[in-house]
Design a protein that fits this description.
Elements: H1 12-40, H2 44-47, H3 61-69, H4 72-103, H5 109-121, H6 124-137, H7 144-168, H8 172-180, H9 185-196, H10 198-214, H11 217-222, H12 230-233, H13 245-265, H14 267-274
Length: 280
């Protein structure tokens, strides 16, 4: 007569150790963010006090100076325009490239995806001079259009690579059944494939938005006083006299807020999208 072995209970000491290590690692990651946010709500005396002030009266004066006293508010609007437009256009163009690669058999299909991804691996600093001269020849230097075009160029290879994997995960039999019912390739894509791959498309769009929002090199070289993005505008708080820490922390908090809100809004799609199999 067989006996059932009792289940082993997890060791309380090992569980507590793992929880402690996880808590320490979490604090190491979120500690600088919490320090940035709390400093944004402090006065200069509170921020530079020799004693750590855990309890203080928060103030919004730093945010008022950032939004009203400097050009940061205009840079915030510029970044929103650049990030949203470049992400949407990159998704549209990437879908037009990734879907045929995922569904149609043609010579060089497997190598084409690798070639496209290799464009993303090239360091941006290598291409900045030729792109600068090209945009200067067509009169686009210093405009938001130039930054948008370069952000599309930057995000397109990664978007193609990710979307190709997401579209391949959609069962091909569903498309064949839809085409038997009279739908063409374009209708099948928009009515069948795109809704099923929506979590992956949302995850790709969020990544494109974050990369565009955080990009500094192209925006710094190609922008002027009226087309600066937030990453470039943050440098105005570092002067030869000193660094305006409370204001730069308030500005950095505003920079992090849209990305956090976008990730929070797309959290469900982001988790589902990144587990569909494209990121392996």
């Amino acid at each position: 007569m067989s006996t059932i072995a009792p289940r082993r209970r997890p060791r309380n000491g090992l569980t507590a150790l793992r929880a402690t290590i996880a808590g320490i690692i979490t604090l190491l990651f979120i500690g600088p963010i919490l320090w940035m946010i709390t400093t944004a709500f402090k006065t200069g005396n509170q921020a530079f006090s020799t004693e750590i002030q855990w309890f203080f009266t928060p103030t919004l004066s730093n945010f008022e100076r950032v939004l009203q006293g400097t050009s940061f508010g205009f840079a915030l609007v510029n970044s929103l325009q650049v990030s949203i437009i470049s992400s949407v256009v990159a998704l549209l163009l990437a879908s037009g490239i990734a879907y045929p690669i995922a569904r149609f058999d043609f010579k060089g299909r497997s190598g084409l995806a690798g070639v496209i991804l290799s464009l993303r691996i090239v360091p941006p600093i290598v291409t900045i001079i030729p792109l600068f001269l090209l945009l200067q020849s067509v009169g686009l230097n210093g405009s938001l259009t130039a930054i948008i075009l370069l952000h599309i160029f930057m995000n397109l290879p990664l978007a193609v690579w990710l979307l190709r994997g997401f579209y391949e995960d959609v069962p091909k039999e569903l498309e064949e059944a839809a085409q038997l019912d009279g739908l063409g390739h374009l209708s099948t894509f928009f009515r069948i494939v795109l809704p099923l791959a929506a979590p992956g498309v949302a995850a790709t769009g969020l990544l494109c938005f974050v990369f565009s929002w955080n990009e500094f090199l192209f925006a710094n070289i190609l922008s002027n006083a009226t087309s600066q993005t937030v990453t470039v505008s943050l440098t105005q708080y570092v002067t030869p006299v000193g660094t305006q820490w409370t204001q730069i922390m308030a500005a950095a908090t505003l920079v992090a807020l849209p990305v956090w809100l976008a990730a929070l809004a797309a959290q469900k799609y982001l988790v589902r999208g990144l587990t569909l199999g494209a990121v392996k």
